[in-house]
Every structure is written in structure tokens, then in C-alpha cells.
Amino acid sequence: MSVNTVAPTTQKDISTDASPGHHLSALPEALSARMRLPLKISNLTLNSRVLQSPLSGVTDKVFRRLVRRYAPQSMLYTEMVSAAELHHLKKLPEVMDIDPDEQPISIQLFDCRPAFLAEAARKAVDQGADTIDINMGCPVNKITKNGGGSSLLRDPETAIAIVKAVCQAVSVPVTVKTRIGWSDDAINAVEFAQQMEAAGAKMLTLHGRTRAQGYNGIARWDQIAKVKAALTIPVIANGDIFSVDSAVQCLLETQADGVMCSRGTLGYPFLVGEIDYFLKTGDRKLTPTAIQRLQCAKEHLIMLWDYKGLRGIRQARKHMSWYAKDFENAADLRDRLCQIETVEQGCELIDSAISRLKTA
């Protein structure tokens, strides 16, 4: 999926504040017992039911390293990979650059041509992918106008052919990430999900919004609950997972087999690990302070510079803006970080902000 930076809408007034009095005091026992069980995706066993969503322009190797630090057992996803680009390029793109220690990891592919996707899937498995995820939910026009992403919700025959072709091409589980429908007048989540399962998909992740919604409004978890009740393969809930509390509430309402975090991890790579820890133990990790978040931002910046050079600095600007929030003078720091030209500039700005916070 591509990233929309519109401020998140909280689900049913669930607080994203971890302060006392604003969160669940205990995890319901039935949910706790279920969440402690391994997640089975065909022949693959995961020891976490909290997943990091693929995010275009975000979930590169640097970001995944940070998420992995706090969520050692969660499934991570690469950025969305174009099967057409893989077909025409002589060398694999950077988005398929996977560290040997990144497992479990999935590579997400998009296109509308079964043969192209099958070929791309084989290359992805050669790179180390534990599953192949087919994007059938991206709402961005440049993807949907060419028949990919969420446009496949309106073309189930092609979607079925894609899943069958990829399943035949690789030995790892094939999964699908999609939405509840194209628009309010065309919600077909249950029927579409059943078709994907019948075609061979071994897990389905459902974002509780339509394509027309984009990232606006509230995710409709009730539609995820309907899909979960209709399928036998694991169903992962996605949409409005911004905190431990929202994750728990989503699991209670949907009875899904797990949750996938997306925009909630922007500037906050701690989230997947926080949710996973709570689901497994019933205890909460200490929420990172503003200083700790800025220290993470600085490390993220340096890692992007080391990995991508000047391109990494340009990409870091948006990440830095996501980190710089919820403390005094955050807006001013955010504005300055969005204009950095060098890693030294960024580090100086962050160091000065940390110093001010220490003496405040």
C-alpha cells in the first residue's frame, strides 16, 4: 500500500494515549489464550499474531530492522514490488533486498497479469521470502488504473487466476491483502475472500475500508468479522490499529486471527512489539519517552544515510516529521527536519531538541 499521511481516525473513541485510565487493565483470558498460540499459514508457523504492513516508501530494510528490534517474532513485509518492473529489469530492485536474519518476512507483489506475478513470485522466493503476498487493496490511482491493487475487487476472475498461477509457481504460502470493496455500493468482502481461499490463498489480510474511502473515515471492523466467520484460512485485521487498546478491541470485535499495523508505525516502530508483548503476556511495555523516540529518529536517519546516501536523506525527511510530535516545540522541529540536506543537519537538530527536553 502507499502511505497517506492524513491524521488517523481512532476507532470508536479508543484512546491511543497510554496514560493510566485510558487503556485496558487486563487482556480477556479467552483472547489471551488464542493469541499465545502459533499462527499457522499452511506449512509456515509464526510465533506472533501481530504483523507489520507493507508500506510503499516506508518498509525498506532500514525500517524493518527497527521494527524487528522490538518485535523479534513478527512477520515483516517489504515494500510493494511491481511484477512488471521485475520482469523488465536485469537486476533485482532494492525493495527486494532482504537480510538473512529478517525471517519471517514476506514480499508483496502487485500487477494484474498472472504470468508476470508468477515469475516475480519465483524471484521473490529466491530472495528469501517466507510467503508471497498479492496486493489487491492499494487504492492509489496509478496502481488501480492499470488493473492492479484494489481494482481486482471488481475483477474477481483475474484475481482468481493470479492466485492460482502464483500458487503453482512457488512452494511457499501465497496470501492476499485486500479491502472490503470498491465503494459503499460495491462491498463484496465475503464473496471475494471466499474466492481467494478457493483459489489457493493460505491467509487473507483485510483492510476495513473501501477503495473509495482511501484512508479516510473509520475502518469497518464488522466487515472483517463477517469475512472471518466465512473463511477457514487465517484472517488478519487491518485498519485503525494505532495502539495496544485498538488492537485488542479489533480482535475482540472481529475474532480475527491477528492484526496488521500500518500507519500506526509511522514514526513509531515500537508499535508491533508493544502489541505483541501485551497479547502474549498481558503486561504493557513502557511507552518510549519523547527523548527515546528522538534517539530512534536519529538512528533511523543515520541508517538511511549509510544505506542509501543522499536519496536516504530525502526519504528520511518524512520519517523525521513522523517522529517529531507530541512534545513541546515539536512543530518547529518537524518543519526544520523536513528541509534537511545532510545527515549532519538532521543530527544537530535532533540533538538540540533532546538537550532542550532534558533540561525542561
Automatic annotation (TrEMBL):
GO terms for molecular function: flavin adenine dinucleotide binding; tRNA binding; tRNA dihydrouridine synthase activity. Its cofactor is FMN. Keywords: Flavoprotein, FMN, NADP, Nucleotide-binding, Oxidoreductase, RNA-binding, tRNA processing, tRNA-binding. It catalyses: a 5,6-dihydrouridine in tRNA + NAD(+) = a uridine in tRNA + NADH + H(+); a 5,6-dihydrouridine in tRNA + NADP(+) = a uridine in tRNA + NADPH + H(+). The active site is at residue 138. Residues 52-356 form the DUS-like FMN-binding domain. Residues 1-18 have a biased composition (Polar residues). Residues 1-21 are annotated as: Disordered. FMN binds at residues 108, 177, 207, 262-263. It comes from the Bacteria. Catalyzes the synthesis of 5,6-dihydrouridine (D), a modified base found in the D-loop of most tRNAs, via the reduction of the C5-C6 double bond in target uridines. NCBIfam families: nifR3_yhdG. PANTHER family: DUS-LIKE FMN-BINDING DOMAIN-CONTAINING PROTEIN, TRNA-DIHYDROURIDINE SYNTHASE. This is tRNA-dihydrouridine synthase. It comes from Leptolyngbya foveolarum. The lineage of its organism: Bacteria, Bacillati, Cyanobacteriota, Cyanophyceae, Leptolyngbyales.
